Amino acid sequence: MDAIPTFFEDIKQYVGFSPRDAERLLSLVPLLEPHFEAISDHFYACILAHPRAHASITGGNAQVERLKKTLVQWMKSGLEGPHDEAFYERRSRIGRRHVQINLPQQYMVTAMDAMRLDYRAVLEDKLRDDLDAFVAACNSLDRLFDLELAVM
């Protein structure tokens, strides 16, 4: 009888996240990492520009600056993996924290989409001469973001 997959293994199978995706994401670190701070700044600018999303940030500018640094670490670890059960546990803690601070889900989802678009913009510039590599990178990123959203 087949073993029942864990929640995380099940959603990885569902979105088609493969070892090749993990390898591809790791290869994107040198392209994307120089842009992490700008992406983090944009991410929090979107949150701060919206009153209901902004309401979840109660610690002022100091909290925002800490969260920006945490987001940079989150971006790097998402690309580097490994995308295993420990990864799942770390990511699910983030989701639980969002619940604790009463962050409405729609803002987490839409903020993730803003990040997805920022990643794509960087890759469009960096991979403009290799459409196949761009499409493959975007597909792997989409699977990663789908995993992140499912866990959170």
Keywords summarizing the entry:
152 residues; mainly alpha
Structural write-up:
This protein is an all-alpha fold and 152 residues long. The protein contains eight helices and no strands. The protein has helices spanning 7-15, 19-32, 36-49, 51-54, 60-80, 85-100, 105-126, 131-151. Helix 1 (7-15) runs antiparallel to helix 8, helix 3 (36-49) packs antiparallel against helix 7 (105-126) and helix 7 (105-126) runs antiparallel to helix 8. The longest helix is centred in the last third of the chain and has 22 residues, at 105-126. The chain starts with 6 loop residues before the first helix and ends with a helix. The model has no long low-confidence stretch (mean pLDDT 89).
What's the helix and strand layout?
Elements: H1 7-15, H2 19-32, H3 36-49, H4 51-54, H5 60-80, H6 85-100, H7 105-126, H8 131-151
Helix pairs in contact: 1-8, 2-5, 2-8, 3-5, 3-7, 7-8
Concise structural overview:
With 152 residues, the chain is mainly α.
Sheet-strand content, in percent, reads under 5%
pLDDT averaged residue by residue: 89
**Which stretches of 5+ consecutive residues score pLDDT under 50?**
none
Give the topology string: H per helix, E per strand.
HHHHHHHH
What's the number of helices? 8
Radius of gyration: 16 Å
| Spatial gap, N to C terminus | 31 Å
- Structure classification: mainly alpha
Indicate the overall shape: globular
**What is the count of β-strands?**
0
Helix fraction?
Answer: over 70%
Largest sheet: none
